[in-house]
Write a structure and sequence with these properties.
It is found in: Cytoplasm, Cytosol; Lysosome; Secreted, Extracellular exosome. By secondary structure, the protein is an alpha+beta fold. It folds into 2 domains: 47 residues; 179 residues, Trefoil (Acidic Fibroblast Growth Factor, subunit A) (Trefoil), CATH 2.80.10. Helix content is 18%, strand content 38%. Strands 4, 7, 8, 11, 12, 13 and 18 form a 7-stranded antiparallel sheet that branches. A 3-stranded mixed sheet has the order 1-3-2, with helices on one face. A 3-stranded antiparallel sheet has the order 5-6-15, with no helix packed on it. It starts with a strand and ends with a strand.
């Protein structure tokens, strides 16, 4: 049996007579697919036939639970289903929207504001630490995964909904001391930290968009009006600015 690690974001496929191939899938797997893997693993133990009665199949499952092969299967499936985001570096910068408004920290609220800064007020623009991530074995078709942190603080931009509501996603500043973010290494899909991740796409060399990983098709955006909160909006919303430029960039 050939066990290959193809990462084409398609499906998990199993043919008991031709072998076993595991590929990345975004869809939940059925118990029958798991059972097929268990049966395939039996071939490694030189099982003579793959024609099992219901009773024999039950015994195989129970035997593998005892011997740990089921754990091996679920471990393999976990690595297939979960996407792991691994950090690759940090860029420090300031951010302006498409109308040249700078991002400044709002006093007393967990928000950033988009404000046109003039004269000697440019120091009000917050520094942003942009941590870049990669998804090993997967093509970044949605953009570069990133986290956005207020420099010299533990405040991160997070896309979230109010608990227990069906409201639309909002952008907030959230204090976080989680090890994954204090010392960015990896963030796993569905580990509760995806609210801090955004897909960054760059067009024309300098035009950036930031799409929520947790809530696809929702983008960081600003109002066309002055001194309004930075928030989320859907891609089709033309009343808000969804493009940004990074200035004063340096690698840290």
């Amino acid at each position: 049996i050939a066990l290959s690690g193809s990462f084409s974001m398609t499906c998990l496929w199993c043919d008991l007579h031709k072998g076993l191939r595991i590929e990345i899938s975004e869809q939940p797997h059925t118990m029958r697919q798991v059972t097929n893997i268990i049966i395939a693993l039996q071939k490694f133990k030189q099982v003579r036939s793959t024609e099992f009665t219901d009773h024999e199949l039950f015994n195989i499952i129970i035997e593998n639970i005892v011997e740990g092969a089921v754990n091996l299967c679920f471990s393999a499936l976990t690595s297939v289903i979960h996407i792991i985001y691994a950090t690759t570096g940090v860029i420090q910068c300031t951010v302006c929207d498409g109308l040249k408004k700078s991002l400044v920290q709002s006093q007393g609220t967990p928000n950033l504001l988009a404000v046109t800064l003039r004269g000697g007020n440019s120091n009000r623009s917050v520094g942003i630490n942009l941590s870049t991530y990669t998804t090993p074995g997967c093509k970044a078709t949605n953009g570069q995964p990133i986290c956005l942190k207020i420099a010299q603080s533990n405040l991160y931009l997070a896309c979230t909904k109010e608990s227990g509501t069906s409201s639309q996603p909002h952008l907030i500043l959230e204090a976080c001391t989680h090890d994954h973010l204090r010392k960015p290494t990896t963030i796993e899909e569905n580990d509760g930290m995806e609210r801090f991740l955004f897909f960054r796409k760059v067009t024309g060399g300098s035009i950036n968009t930031f799409e929520s990983v947790k809530y696809p098709h929702w983008f960081i955006s600003t109002s066309k009006n002055e001194s309004m909160p930075v928030d989320m909006c859907v891609e089709e919303d033309t009343s808000r600015q969804k493009v940004f430029t990074l200035q004063d960039q340096k690698v840290i």
